[in-house]
Amino acid sequence: MKSALITGITGQDGAYLTKFLLDKGYEVHGLVRRSSIERYDRIEEFLKDDRLTLHYGDMTDSSNIIRLMSDIRPDEVYNLAAMSHVYVSFDTPEYTANADGMGTLRLLEAIRILGLEQKTRVYQASTSELYGKVQETPQSETTPFYPRSPYAAAKMYAYWITVNYREAYNIFACNGILFNHESPLRGETFVTRKITIAVANIKNGNQDCLYLGNLDAKRDWGFAGDYVEAMWLMLQQEKPEDFVIATGETRTVREFVECAFSEAGIDIEWQGTGINESGIDRTTGQVIVAVDPQFFRPTEVELLLGNPTKAKEKLGWERKTSFHQLVQMMVQEDLKRLEN
Ligand code: NDP
Ligand code: GDR
């Protein structure tokens, strides 16, 4: 039985990856942080599975990482743990650098210190945020990086230290440069989930208006369930390489809003521009979407559009879920959750 350690197992991707690896017959270990309320909601259904073991730890604690790696000696490590919110990283830049940047170094160093270079393969959760102020569209594995947030700068360090440890110590380590991927398990303050929760609330009369920041930002949005397969595929190749994982389509936040409300039977009409822009319910005439500048970022990433050709050719990976299917799934799940 192969073994895998997932850091960030309690997050969106951690939950989908846990299911994926258990289905493949893996023994799965997960790193969890101690908190005053232990919330493992996303992985609750797997907690009774004997093949899943949780370990307390933190990416900011080297001795903890070394001890865990020494005890588990996993065949594969998926480093998903991160302070993953771009907006919040402007408020917590030092912590973000520590967890997202240095955390990756700690993991790679543990492999080296323990002599696991030939045993343990590493997946590093890199991100399309590395492209930031984009230098080329669509973005591929060869597009230059230009990070636009403390989060992206920390992830840039993690990207390059992964490449360096691969080249210097022959560790099988891959960067998955994943574009935005969403699901009903998405954190509630990321824009897609914030929108689908608001749609369910507004539909049920529990909320009047949805306040958002930049409606013009464009993202290449896919489904998280499709993307975890690509993480695994990278570690099954003959040689370690970095891959862009994306859909190859881009949409504005505004389009996501329209599509999500339409899924709940609400038709939106846009009025005004800039911070005065609002979305009106065509049937009732009520303002149900408005811009609030508090959600603008000090530096924004305006356009992301990935080129997943290499992943298709070498991994045989393609997204299965379309943009409309993704929005539909998220809205329906949030409507159902409210009913329950
Ligand atoms: P989430 O924010 O849903 O999950 C992050 C996970 O990291 C949680 O389990 C969290 O634990 C854990 N974590 C945070 N800080 C630490 C720490 N210091 N020590 C240990 N664990 C920690 O993120 P996603 O699942 O969406 O993303 C997974 C990874 O992929 C992240 O690294 C993210 O940056 C990256 N990524 C995500 C993309 C996306 O669109 N989703 C796109 C590209 C990259 P807790 O539950 O305790 O908070
Ligand atoms: P992102 O995701 O920053 O791309 O990072 P997010 O959903 O937070 O923002 C996407 C775009 O929407 C705009 N936006 C808003 N964003 C939020 N959160 N809240 C709002 O109210 C709002 N209004 C408009 C943002 O300005 C932005 O342009 C995600 C994370 O999962 C990262 O960890 C990951 O690396 C990248 O995706 C790829």
UniProtKB/TrEMBL annotation:
Cofactor(s) the protein requires to work: NADP(+)
Pfam family, one: GDP_Man_Dehyd
Top EC class, one word: lyase
Entry EC no(s): 4.2.1.47
Gene3D superfamilies: NAD(P)-binding Rossmann-like Domain (3.40.50.720), UDP-galactose 4-epimerase, domain 1 (3.90.25.10)
Domain NAD(P)-binding: residue ranges: 5-330
Keywords for this protein: Lyase, NADP
Catalytic reaction equation(s): GDP-alpha-D-mannose = GDP-4-dehydro-alpha-D-rhamnose + H2O
UniProt keyword annotation of Membrane present: no
Any one GO molecular function term: GDP-mannose 4,6-dehydratase activity
HAMAP family: GDP_Man_dehydratase (MF_00955)
Role noted for this protein: Catalyzes the conversion of GDP-D-mannose to GDP-4-dehydro-6-deoxy-D-mannose.
UniProt-recorded name of the protein: GDP-mannose 4,6-dehydratase
Organism: Lysinibacillus parviboronicapiens
Lineage summary: Bacteria, Bacillati, Bacillota, Bacilli, Bacillales
Gene behind the chain: gmd
